[in-house]
Amino acid sequence: MLNDPRSHGLWENTAPEPPTTSPLDGAMSADVVIVGGGYTGLSSALHLAEAGSKVVLLEAKEIGFGGAGRNVGLINAGMWVMPNDLPGVLGPVHGERLLDLLGNAPKLVMELIDKHQIACELERNGTLHCAVGADGLKEIEARAAQWAARGAAVRLLDAAETAKRIGSDGYTGSLLDKRAGTLQPLAYARGLAHAAVKAGVAIHTSSPVIATERNGSRWMVKTAKGEVSAEWIIVATDAYSTGPWEQVRSEQVHLPYFNFATVPLGHNLRQSILPGREGAWDTKEILSSFRMDQAGRLVFGSVGALRNTGLAVHKGWAKRALKRLFPVIGNVEFECEWYGQIGMTDNALPRFHKFAPGVVGFSGYNGRGIAPGTVFGRTLADHILGRLPEADLPLPLTSPTEPSFRALKEIWYEAGAQVAHFADARL
């Protein structure tokens, strides 16, 4: 169990149980050892095992302990970078590959949920990127046009249609992305774990990796009480990385993000607030997100950490903001509260690293882990299986580099969010 009520909140309370696992104890041999039990690691494990590979997955804490168990639950397509800008950042070859891969990534998530009958409150009605003011409207107009030019199932909605779908007149328009949706994020991670175990993956939790050693053509991956010998290592630890691959965490700036879940709303409120169950977020620099779970709880979040003075500041702001956005909701009570850390790279794009021969990983999802993590996991499996050469990967090979003033930026983001939320009732 994830025993910190402010780390996983509603998701821990409502997710089905994970598969039964235990710490690694003794020596094992595998084709591939995967380090990290989030979306990337579990997707890699599942796809490799289904192709006949012997896989061992090592997780330092519990399945979904990191970003996979703390996020909002939006199954987004693409990244924050505008579609037309992405080839300019990565080059035309990798840029177009990444756009194609991530544009279709929500489809893979939904296919896996259907195939393995994962109970994770999947909603397929899309997401709404909500415009705040004239500048926000210009942003989503550009994004809509660029995705539409690539054949994506997106549509620009005016203020009236947006108000009808959201239940609030606070926005000047929205971008409806029908490729996307929402789910219960920890339940999805645990469902992938069940599917991986069924396919033959050996999962060991409470098994942080403390060292690795090259032994001929194989790697020895060591924990406190055991070791795994394998030809390949997949590093799938991302923003919560510690130990031998802590440089993955060090190349990302942690951006704290919190969520509050209301008590289940009454029938009339459920019919007026997000009646189509789309997930939503806005265009503000310090953005807000909101969505419903299947029990009718409104999950509302923004940038900030629920610790020290941040807990009172952000909770007070959230109550004011919800009442202003949805006046009919009244003085709402929160049932759960939690927060996590988003790993932000300096160009807001993910990375592909080869840490050593046979040691590979994707990281840096910038707050969009569900669909990218799932599809990058499959990509790593295809690479190891020989189906996808390194030259054909969707990202170029790069080395981890720490951004300038990382620690100061993290302090600023946490403190700045408190200042903004103390002063601002939003919209």
UniProtKB/TrEMBL annotation:
Keyword vocabulary terms for this entry: Oxidoreductase
Per the UniProt entry, what species is this protein from, by scientific name? Answer: Rhizobium laguerreae
Region entry Disordered, spans: 1-25
Question: Would you tell me the protein name for this molecule?
Answer: Glycine/D-amino acid oxidase-like deaminating enzyme
What top-level branch of life does the organism fall under? Bacteria
Q: Where is the FAD dependent oxidoreductase domain?
A: 31-382
Q: Cross-referenced InterPro entries, in alphabetical order?
A: FAD-dep_OxRdtase, FAD/NAD-bd_sf
Q: Which Gene3D superfamilies match?
A: D-Amino Acid Oxidase, subunit A, domain 2 (3.30.9.10), FAD/NAD(P)-binding domain (3.50.50.60)
